Structure formats: C-alpha cells, structure tokens
C-alpha cells in the first residue's frame, strides 16, 4: 500500500460517483469528440485533433446537469457544480484548444501549398492604334504548387515546440481543476464550520441566558448581589453579540461557496447536515515517499517540464531558420488576351534558398531562445523545490489537525462537565457567578476549537492531496459529509 493510501488518499482516478467531475481528465487528454484530420509524414500518420468549442455549462464535450439548489448539496455535488459552472474551467479548456490548433498549424508545414490566382481586365486603345477588337478583355489564371523538401529540421523543431506547449496547456488545465476542487472543499467545509459555530453560539447564548435568569432570581430573592446580576447580564449580551457575528460569518461563507460554484453570491444554497464528525484518518510517516510521488504527479511541474522542452525546440527552430531550405515548385500559367493572342506555360523547378545576411537577427533570435530556456529551467527547478515545501507543510498541518481533534474532544467533554457542575452549584447557592460564567465561556471556546479542528483536518487532507497532485473525484468522495460520514 502506498504512503498516500495509508494517509486516507487514493490515487485511483474517478472511481466513485459518475458526476461531471469524472469528465475532466487529470492527464493530457483532449476531448474524444473533436474535429480531426489525418495527415502523413514519411508514410506515418499524423493525427491533428482540434477540440470543438465548449459552451457554458459543459465539461469536456458533455453537458453538465444543473445543480438542484432546492435540495441539500453534498460535497461531491458542490465539486461537480464548481467544475461545470466556474468560468476558470472553460478558460483553461479554451487555452488548451488554442494550443491544439497551434499544433495543427505547425503540422501544416509538412503539406504542399497550392495557390490559384485568377485575374481579368478590360483594355481600351486609341482607334488609330487598334490592331484587335476594341475594347478587348485579358484573362489570366496561374496555379502554383510548392513543397518544402528540406529545411535542416526547422519544421520538426516548430512542431515539437507546439506539441510541448500543448502538453503544458493540458497540464495547466489540470492545475486549474485541482485548484478549483480545493477551493470547493475549503468553501464547503467553511460553511459547515460556520453552521456548527452558529449552533454553538446559540447554545452558549441559551446557557448565558439561563445563568442570567438564575442570577436575577437569586437577586430578587435577596441572596445575590447586584454585581452577580450585572455580570451575568453582561455575559448574556456578549453571547448574543457572538451569535450575531456567527450569523454574519455564515452568510459570508455561503456567498463565497456560491461564487466558487460559479453562481450568484445571493443564490440560496443548502448543504447536507454534517454533524457526525469522525476521527480523521492517520497520516503516513513516509514523508519522503509523498514528496517523491508529488514530483511524479504534480501537473504544474509537468507543465513546467513541457515548457522547458518547448524552449529547447524553439532554440533548434531558430538555428534551423538560419540555414538554407530546399523546395520544389510546379506552376501553370494561362493567359488569354483575345482571339489573336493566348499563352499556356507550365514550369517545374527546384529552389534552394540560402540566407546570407539579415542584420544578425538570427543570432539574436537564438540567444533569446537560449535565454528563454534558462528562464523555463529555473522556473521548473523553483516549482520542484516548492513541491517539497508544499507537501511538508500540508503533511504537518494534517498531523496537527489530527492531534488537535483528539485534544479538542477531550477539552469539550471536560468543559461540558465543568459548566454543568458550576451552574448547578450556583443555583444551589454554594457557588459564585464568576465560576459559572468562566465555565460557560470555556465551554463555548472549547466547542469553537473542536469545530475549527475538524475544519482544519478536512481541508488539510484535501490540501495534501493537491500538494501530491492526486486531488480528484475519488479523493473528494473520501471526505466526510452526510452520505459519507
């Protein structure tokens, strides 16, 4: 079993629900349904696939089902809606289509070019000089076909550059998908955390109200001081303020979630009730294996590697462009000036074009391409170094979250018992209001810490999956919600 699997992740892509998320391939695949042409070079087929346009509400070439906002949404449905509706998905797909078309343009250099030029005009001469019908027409037709035989690898390098840029665009598309998935997970659990925080705030408000009523009753009975009543009333007012703040935070979180899903922020959304928290899964101790897996799976590193290869191909193309080219051309020219004169000429020739001097421009193009490759290589090395930090931070955050959940659970149990005892002692007249209010405040704080620990744990799992490069539908389905506690 891999270290990532032992951490609660799965590298098996799209093994769960068949939602639109599974239609986004985290590889370099382009749509299966596309406009294709098969060309040939040296007897071998060259497949040029240019994806068709993707309208709004589509993932790949498949229409997405609109989310039913009348029902409570699961995490999988939130992720589905995010990929279907968020404009970043369509933007990344369109960029891949642009680069796929550039591959087709590069491959067109292996085909001959044919040009047909047709012209006609009417001529009028002075009557005394006319030797033919006046006015007379002149019709010309010229067809020229040419084919590049040899160019020292310029075509090959240009095609390789386009191919690598297509790989980079496809990997960048995967980066966008994983980034959106992580944003969806964060927004989803932030809403869940704010729902739980609001419930805890209301419970704390009810407890403060009960303490205030008890203090008021004891004050009216003459067994408590006015200070007890005022302190309880102040705590009650503070609890009410905390509840109002929690309500506002929840509304803000709902707006953020709607924005991530690609819908209007004021659109009402309901989520499944996620109250059954389970202990987070253990974390593997093999951090080295996780980092190594990340270097093999991270799409941003794949995109950067493709950019380096594209830059090298650009160097090769620049060098070849400064060398001679050999072409073959055939033409046919037909001209009909009148019934008196006509011409029909055919030619077949071989052309060798030798660049002699162009102001040192080829030299500087090569230098520019070489410098670009150095930039791309440095960017690749920076990403490779950043990957280790990303995995390390996410790994440590997940370990911390696991330990925090366990500690927070113990803290809540202790704070609940302390609050119950303190309130009972005060009502029985053997305790003081300060102890009671402190115990209730400690309970409210403990519940907030437990909620935050669960939020951090679930987000940390998704963050580690993204850091390793395996954040996909299968991993999303392992995160807890009402259907998968």
At a glance:
Strand 1 and strand 2 form a beta hairpin. The protein is of the alpha+beta class and about 475 residues long.
Main beta sheet, described?
4 strands, antiparallel
How many helices? The count is: 10
Number of strands: 8
Helix content: 55-70%
Query: What's the CATH H-level superfamily name?
Result: Outer membrane efflux proteins (OEP)
The CATH first-level class comes to Mainly Alpha
State the CATH architecture: Up-down Bundle
Computed structural class: alpha+beta
In whole angstroms, how far apart are the ends?
23 Å
Which percent band covers the strand fraction?
Answer: 5-15%
User: Spans with pLDDT under 50 lasting ≥5 residues?
Assistant: 1-62
Q: The CATH topology, please? A: Outer membrane efflux proteins (OEP)
Reading side by side through the largest sheet, how are the strands ordered? 5-6-7-8
Order of secondary-structure elements: HEEEEHHEEHHHHEEHHH
Please state the CA-atom Rg, rounded to the nearest Å.
Answer: 36 Å
Description:
37% of the residues are buried. The strands form 3 sheets. A 4-stranded antiparallel sheet has the order 5-6-7-8, with no helix packed on it. A two-stranded antiparallel ribbon has the order 1-2. The chain has a single domain (3-112, 152-321, 361-476), classed as Outer membrane efflux proteins (OEP) (Up-down Bundle), CATH 1.20.1600.10. Helix 4 (154-220) runs antiparallel to helix 9 (433-468). It has 485 residues and is of the alpha+beta class. The chain has 10 helices and 8 strands. The longest helix has 67 residues, at 154-220.
């Amino acid at each position: 079993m891999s270290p990532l699997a032992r951490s609660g992740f799965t590298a098996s892509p799209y093994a769960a629900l068949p939602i639109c998320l599974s239609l986004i391939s985290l590889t370099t695949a382009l749509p299966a349904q596309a406009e294709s042409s098969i060309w040939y070079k040296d007897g071998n087929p060259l497949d040029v696939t240019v994806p068709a346009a993707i309208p709004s509400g589509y993932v790949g070439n498949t229409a997405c089902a609109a989310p039913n906002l009348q029902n409570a949404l699961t995490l999988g449905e939130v992720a589905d809606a995010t990929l279907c509706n968020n404009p970043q998905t369509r933007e990344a797909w369109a960029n891949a289509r642009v680069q796929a078309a550039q591959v087709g343009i590069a491959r067109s250099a292996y085909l001959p070019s044919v040009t047909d030029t047709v012209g006609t005009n009417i001529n009028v001469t002075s009557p005394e000089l006319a030797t033919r019908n006046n006015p007379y027409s002149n019709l010309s037709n010229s067809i020229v076909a040419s084919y590049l035989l040899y160019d020292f690898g310029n075509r090959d390098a240009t095609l390789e550059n386009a191919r690598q840029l297509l790989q980079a665009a496809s990997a960048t598309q995967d980066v966008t998908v994983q980034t959106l998935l992580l944003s969806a997970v964060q927004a989803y659990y932030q809403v869940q955390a704010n729902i739980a925080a609001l419930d805890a705030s209301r419970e704390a408000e009810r407890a403060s109200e009960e303490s205030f009523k008890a203090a008021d009753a004891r004050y009216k009975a003459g067994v408590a001081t006015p200070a007890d009543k005022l302190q309880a009333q102040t705590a009650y007012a503070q609890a009410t303020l905390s509840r109002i703040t929690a309500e506002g935070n929840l509304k803000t979180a709902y707006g953020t979630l709607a924005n991530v899903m690609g819908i209007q922020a004021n659109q009402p959304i309901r989520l499944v009730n996620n109250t059954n928290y389970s202990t987070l899964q253990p974390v593997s101790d093999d951090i080295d294996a996780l980092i190594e897996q990340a270097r093999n799976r991270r799409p941003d590193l794949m995109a950067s590697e493709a950019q380096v290869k594209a830059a090298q191909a650009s160097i090769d193309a620049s060098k070849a462009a400064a060398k001679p080219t050999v072409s073959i051309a055939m033409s046919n020219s037909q001209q009909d000036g009148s019934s008196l004169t006509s011409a029909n000429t055919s030619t077949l020739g071989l052309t060798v074009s030798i660049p002699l001097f162009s102001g040192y421009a080829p030299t500087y193009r090569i230098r520019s391409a070489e410098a670009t490759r150095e930039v791309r290589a440095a960017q690749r090395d920076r990403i490779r170094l950043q990957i280790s930090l990303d995995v390390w931070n996410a790994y440590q955050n997940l370990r911390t979250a696991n330990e925090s959940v366990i500690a927070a659970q113990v803290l809540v149990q202790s704070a609940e018992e302390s609050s119950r005892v303190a309130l009972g002692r005060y009502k029985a007249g053997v305790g003081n209001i300060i102890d009671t209010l402190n115990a209730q405040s400690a309970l409210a704080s403990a519940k907030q810490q437990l909620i935050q620990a669960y939020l951090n744990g679930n987000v940390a799992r998704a963050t580690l999956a993204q850091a390793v490069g395996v954040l996909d539908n299968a991993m999303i389905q392992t995160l807890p919600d009402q259907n998968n506690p």
